[in-house]
Structures are given as C-alpha cells and as structure tokens.
Amino acid sequence: MCEQTALPVETKNTSKRRKKLWEVGEGHHCSILGTCLRRTDLRRLSRKKIFQMESGDSDYQIHLTLVGFAASRNSKSRAMHKFLDGRYRVAIKRYAAAHDDEVLELWNQDVKKGTVAGAYWAIMTNQLLSSDVRTEVYGQNHMLGFDNIVGNQQKHRLHEETANKIVMLEEVLVSERQTHLKEQMATVSEMENLKKVQKKSVLLAAENKKIVEKNIRLTSELAGISLSGEIGKLKEQLRESSKRNAGLNGEVETLKRKLEDKSELFELANADSEVTMSKNIQLEGNMSVLQQEVASMETAMLGSLDSSRGCSNCDDQKTSRCPGPDLCGKTILYVGGLHKMVSLYRQLVESHGGNFLHHDGGKEASRAILPKMLSTADAVLCPIDCISHDACTCVKKICKQYQKPYVMMRSSGLSSLAKGLTEIVQ
C-alpha cells in the first residue's frame, strides 16, 4: 500500500476536464479513499444496498472492499464518485481553472489549514494537471499520514497530562467551594434567626398598641362614671395595665437591642462572605501564576530552556569555550531575595550558562554600587516580596534608561527565578 505507483503521462484533453474515480491511475484508489472518506462515510456507504456488505465488517475491511470496487467502472464506483463530487464540490471548483504552479500553491495552503481531503480529490481527478504535479501531491499526502500518527500520539500524551492537572485543580477548587458553602450556610442560619426575632418584635409592638388603646378607652370611660367603687376598680385595672405595659415596653427595648446585635452580626457575616469570595478569586489567580512558575521550574530542572536563540551566530557554539546552552554567557544580576537562598540562585543561573551577580537590595551591600552593577549586567531579576522600595525604583529607572531587560518576580522562590529566566531567554 505504501509503494508509489507512477501516474501515466497523458496529453491534456480540454474536452474532458476531470477524471472519473475508476480512471485514476492504478494504485492510487487506496490513498484517495483513505484520505477523502471518514470512518463515518465508510459506515454510511457500507449500509447502502448497492454495496451488499456484511454489517459486521470492520472499517479496514470496508475500506479494502471499496478500493476493489473503485478500480473499475461499475455501479458502485459511480456511486462513490458521485458521493465524493457532492462532498467536495467547493474544492473541485477552486482547483478547476488552476495550472500546475497554482495547484501546488493552493495545495500548500490547504495543508496548512487542514483541508487536505477536498484538495486531494480535486487534484487527483483534474484532467488538465500534469502527472508530475499529481505525483508530487500524492507523495506529500502519503507522508502526511505518518505525521498525523505521530501528532495524534503526542496530542494524546499532552491530553492525559492536562487532564491530570485539571483533576488536581478541581480538587482544590472543590475544597474551597465547600468551605465557602459552610460559611454561607452559617450566614443563612443567622439570617433566619434574625427574621424570627423581627417577627416576634412586630407581634409585641402590635400587642402593646392594643393595650395603649385599651388604656385610653378605660380612661375615657372613667370620666363618665360617678360611682366611686367603679372608679376605684377601674383605677386598679389601669394601674395593672400600666404595669403590664411598662413590662412589655421593657421587653420591647430588650428585643430591639437584640435586633441591633443580630443586625451587626448579619453585616459582619456578609462582610466575611465577601472577603471569602474575594480570597477565592485571588486564589484562582494565584493558582494560574503558580502553574506557570511550576512549568518554568520543571523546564529549568530538565534543562530544556530554549537554547536555539543567539547560538546560530556564536563562534563558541559546540566548542569547549561555550558557556552554556541557554543564557549563552549573559550576566544576570539578582537584586534582593533571601540571603540563605543566594547559593541556590547562583547554582540555577550558572547551570543554564549564565554569570551570576547579586545585590541584597540595600539591606547590607552599599546602595552606591547598585547603578554600577546594573550597567554591567545583561539582564536583571527582582523579587518584589524581598527588596527595598528605593532599590526597586533604581532598577526600573536604570534598566529603562539603558534598555536592559528586567523581570519583577512574584516571590523570592526558585520557581519564580526559573520563570524569570524563561522570560529572559524568550
């Protein structure tokens, strides 16, 4: 199947612009049907009554059977030709008026876009094209099949790695969401209790209003009663009502104070909920940055920083004088950071072919020598969590003045340094 069959040289026939499927050179039907028919197309054609195939045939068996039908003119090859013409009519029209040089240019465009199937069918059935052009296209299409196999394997491996990372991140997010959900449920519970207190307060206020109205009515009735006995009883009832009213007023005040306390708790709970949501958003952002730093650290540990930039014109390339595969002898100035980590910073920079300089950012080393060190460095790295404000401002000003690359790193850790070196190399 991999042996190339030379296409017969034929004279151009302007009266017949396209070949039929069975007229294509022998040995090319396999590549045409393999390229232009998807697996779903194979199954669809196999179910047609005209092909008389068994339902249990594999895709490969169906492909071989159709290749056999395509070698000669018959009802089956005519049906396949009609199907392919209908599927790729746009590509046929595009290649119809193209000459040999134009066809190769259009073919290269379709290869880049991934629209090879229609282009291949249009070229292999174009009567006006030379056999050299069709042979060239056949060969390129043949090699694309091997490229696709390797590409699919790499995509599958990258897909598995990405899926594992997604699972890990999802577990972290689920944990954060569960914590947030518990806090939210606690807030809802406090709100329900607050609503109950508010409802009880409303009921007590309504009852107090009724008592006040009753007291007013009794006082009015007392004014019209002349009997001292009845007046005494009514006064006693009024005193009792007043006492009860005073007790209810005290209870109302107590409930009001509780309501105010609950309101404050509710506001605090809302504030805590907003802070939690903000932290979750910040965590997701930090997670993205950490993923980038971890990827840079992994690249640095594997020694796979891009070593192709700047090496092609270097006289020391592939000699004993070569300083390294990545930084190519660049002088890297690290300003700030942790004193106990300096030896590790130096090891990471020198392991990738760079010269390491360090300034503590103004804590111990003299600030006066910082501008001189900046002028001799090829690139500058600064961790924003471990550097003085003056040193940071000095680095930015001098690097912009001399157009030197500099990277403000998120932290003073090795992963941030690895990511910074990646940015400098790129």
Q: Summary?
A:
Helix content is 66%, strand content 4%.
Structural commentary:
Strands 2-1-3-4 form a four-stranded parallel beta sheet, sandwiched between helices. It has three domains: 21-129, no CATH class; 163-301; 331-425, Response regulator (Rossmann fold). With 426 residues, it is mainly alpha-helical. Strand 1 (331-335), helix 10 (342-350) and strand 2 (355-359) form a beta-alpha-beta unit. It is flat. It has helices at residues 29-36, 39-46, 59-70, 75-87, 89-96, 100-113, 116-124, 131-223, 228-301, 342-350, 370-376, 389-401, 414-425, and strands at 331-335, 355-359, 379-383, 406-409. The chain has 13 helices and four strands.
Count the domains.
3
Q: Note the beta-strand portion.
A: under 5%
Rg on CA atoms, Å? 42 Å
Terminal CA distance reads 44 Å
Number of beta-strand segments: 4
Encode the helix/strand succession as letters: HHHHHHHHHEHEHEHEH
Helix content estimate? 55-70%
